[in-house]
């Protein structure tokens, strides 16, 4: 009977919903990072900071399958209905477009990060294991 009384109390708070404050900083990673990421996968992460702030994003680690035009596996960054770039490869790879230590900045308080992978990670017939990415974001005052 105690559980019968506690369950409604846990889920029904008086006074409506309580807003959860948005984070001023955090990290975004590819799935399973630092282990190799899955094939045939796509996800979009929406980074939101409090109103009145902008989003600044920097990649700490970046290791994706390189390709001409970043056609196979890529990270696409957009903010304010503008494409900020499409990235793949790793530092020093002849193909691809790694982001390096570039800082990406939104004008508003949202940034979208789309991670896309194709059906395989092969190079000259050998299966390759790419670790994906780790990026840090923070809210920056306008």
TrEMBL record:
Keywords: Disulfide bond, Glycoprotein, Signal. One of its GO terms (molecular function) is serine-type endopeptidase activity. Pfam families: CUB. GO terms for biological process: zymogen activation. GO terms for cellular component: blood microparticle. Residues 14-140 form the CUB domain. It comes from Mandrillus leucophaeus. This is CUB domain-containing protein. Residues 1-17 form the signal peptide. The keyword Isomerase does not apply. The lineage of its organism: Eukaryota, Metazoa, Chordata, Craniata, Vertebrata.
């Amino acid at each position: 009977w105690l559980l019968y009384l506690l369950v409604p109390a846990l889920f029904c708070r008086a006074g409506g919903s309580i807003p959860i404050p948005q984070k001023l900083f955090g990290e975004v990673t590819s799935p399973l990072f630092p282990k190799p990421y899955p094939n045939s996968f796509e996800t979009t992460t929406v980074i939101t900071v409090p109103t009145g702030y902008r989003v600044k994003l920097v990649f700490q680690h970046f290791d994706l399958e390189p390709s001409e035009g970043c056609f196979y596996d890529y990270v696409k960054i957009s903010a304010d209905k503008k494409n900020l770039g499409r990235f793949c490869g790793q530092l020093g790879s002849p193909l691809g477009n790694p982001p390096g230590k570039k800082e990406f900045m939104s004008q508003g308080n949202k940034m979208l990060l789309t991670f896309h992978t194709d059906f395989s990670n092969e190079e000259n017939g050998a299966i390759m294991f790419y670790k994906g990415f780790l990026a840090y974001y923070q809210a920056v005052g306008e």
